[in-house]
Amino acid sequence: MDMNDISQIEQAAGFGRSELFRLGVALLFIIAIMLYSVGSVADVPGSVMLVVAAMIGGYMAVNIGANDVANNVGPAVGSRALTLTGAILIAAIFEAAGALIAGGEVVSTIKKGIIDPALIANTDTFIWVMMGALLAAAVWLNIATALGAPVSTTHSIVGGVLGSGIAAGGIGIANWGKMSQIAASWVISPVLGGLIAAVFLLLIKRTITYKTDMSSAAVRMVPILVALMVWVFGAYLMLKGFKKIWSVDFSTALMIGLALAVIVFVVVRPLVKRAAGRLPNEKASVNRLFTLPLIGAAALLSFAHGANDVANAVGPLAAINEAILHGAVAAKATIPLWVMMVGAIGIALGLALYGPKLIRTVGSEITELDQSRAYCVAMAAAITVIIATQFGLPVSSTHIAVGAVFGVGFLREYLKASHAKRIDEIKSHHHGADEQVVETYLSRFEAASVFDKGIMIQELKKQSAESGLSKKERKNLKRIYRTELVKRAALLKIVAAWLVTVPASAALSAIFFFTIRGMMLE
């Protein structure tokens, strides 16, 4: 056996040990939930079901952390604004803080109102429906994480409730109007996120990186962009992060965000001017100015996510707890502190153990991100949610963030192709000219502003028309060298996972419901 074989064996063994360690820690967490819940509800009738539900809720929370949190910190890691360790630490702290501080005391038992609880036969059946939904959503998230596909946690639990609800009460139990809105969000979320991210990236390019003096342009624009980010995220936190402890209307949220933005603009402007003066006049220097805003965005997105999506883990568990303690199906259920702790700790733990895989997928495996591109993704995530909240559109934060990454990548492809076409036009027009002449013209073209480049191309086209180019030459002028900056394999895998999330979790949920009912009726 040579040294290469020994090295491969050691690598495989190391991978196996790390997987066993992660699995062991996750199992210890679920066992700890079991032991605590046994001690807390030992005297309650039906305590066995509550203990099992608590363990499933912990498993669901771990999977939310493993899959869903990547959208908040992935772009910051991919752009190297944050290290992977730093991102996990920040996200874990702010996810848990969001869940515990702003997660609320009451949660809706039927997510999105997709089934009518009045059509469920009795309390026991309702408990089985919730357990089947929670387990199915957790299993599907686990599968998606293993495949490296970021999917919507909300859609997973919606599919779970739909599947077990239909299994318990028939096809008429479902609110198909709500389901059609959710299906529409599969298109609305990523498209809107992608468009907004592309608009911001184009804005940054036109106002900063396409300028000859990028440092001066950055001094003018970066404080405005940072202030705009504070405005958007201030409103976002008011509408989504703190809505369960301090509810404000849309206009109030915008005014609070605007006040914060003005303060930040005044503070940041001299700091940016001082920093830009010490940096070289290049794109990498401009990108560095977005580092701190990106770290703040990752933290705030994680806080808002923890406040909102902890309900996906503890909502069904709180519903089961309410049904067992009071013997009735409730539209709203209070969340005991121990239930909220299961969700908060589970999300943080799942992120630390299994989050890196999806963080890398979102941050670097779809398209290459730098700090300015990651800024665009963060802005798209917050703005799209604000727009959706105002118009009542059902959108997925996962679909928005991933769609924004794709939007950035496809815009880069378009700009790259357009640039290649222009260079091709220049070379075709100078066909037969001295090489030095061509290089001089290309250098002047590259150094020109966007406006001047347009004038130069128009002049070339005019000269080409006057010179009477042949059909073949005109065909050559239209040729575009395509450069793929978005990985198509990642695109296909993620879209496929999105499309099957609701039906897959619904099918699993129906199977689990019938299994649980069969076991309980024996």
Task: Kindly describe this structure.
The structure is a single chain. This protein has 522 residues and is mostly helical. It has one domain. It contains 18 helices and 2 strands. Helix 8 packs parallel to helix 11.
Gist of the model:
The chain has 522 residues and is mainly α. The chain is built from 18 helices and two strands. Strands 1-2 form a two-stranded antiparallel sheet.
**Low-pLDDT residue intervals, each spanning 5 or more residues:** 465-469
Mean pLDDT: 83
Structural class: mainly alpha
Question: Whole-number radius of gyration?
Answer: 27 Å
Please state how the strands of the largest beta sheet are arranged side by side: 1-2
Strand content: under 5%
Question: SSE order, as H and E?
Answer: HHHHEHHHHHHHEHHHHHHH
First-to-last CA distance: 57 Å
Count of extended strands: 2
Shape call: elongated
Contiguous helical run count:
18
